[in-house]
Design goal:
Arc Repressor Mutant, subunit A, D-Maltodextrin-Binding Protein, domain 2, six-stranded mixed sheet, 10 helices, 8 strands, 44% helix
Length: 296
Amino acid sequence: MPSALPDLSLRQLEYLVAVSMAATWADAAASLGVTPSALSQGLAELERRVGVPLFDRDGRRRPLRASATPVLEHARRVVALTGDLASWADRMRGSSLGSIRLGLIDVAAVEHFDSVINSFRVERPEVSLSISVAPSAGLIADLRRGALDLIVCVEPGEHPPGVDVTRVLSEPIVVIAPSGTEIGPPASWGPWVLFPDGSHTRESTMEALRALGADRTVVADSHQPSVVRAMVRLGMGWGALSRSPGGDAHGLVEGPELFRRHLALMRRDQSPLDPAAIALAESIIATGNRIDQRDR
């Protein structure tokens, strides 16, 4: 016979999510508006109710154990979905006109979906739409913890648990070089200015360069495509980016396609979105599909 379900409180799960994100337990307690003592007692009770150790002891520090990951993932999802439910209940009671927290990578915000966002603001002025622009990894983390409702980012190789993923478009990533450069065989390419380590595009770029037998020396990096373009224009190295916005590659030479990266719309699985958020998501998907068809 399976064990009885543990009697876990939402507050205890909030505590666990908070300590996973904060530098110290004191910082986590402050972010929640509770005392460090209350936080510690709540986490001790959570550990007791789960029935397995969640924390190690390292002097005065109590880091989460790697084996506690399933409990943390459960906590993140429950806390985020409960927040979604509370927002939905506010809207159903008529106490909120609706709000959408949308996260996008920069190319999605300023090039692919800027017209969608502008049209949405004009057509639905009663809805509070906030925009966050950040790298994909940060957007996914914020979505999973409940800080964002919808995101458009580079689709990861493995879909995060508890997240619904809809591919919206595929865009070519091409070689770019300083003005006047002759794009010869791959062995003559480089060195490189790329996105930082840990980004999906950086990993795919390095894999493509390795397959082509190109040099993979990286001399500088930036999360911002505009900064990468500027460093390439200055002659610091070559880059790998989507094609120049509007086809204007001033000061750059665009070379062959290295690979295609996929942008995806993501939301928390089973999150009760309101009609405005659903409409925005559908507009983003439809626009992405049109861009995809146009570029093929």
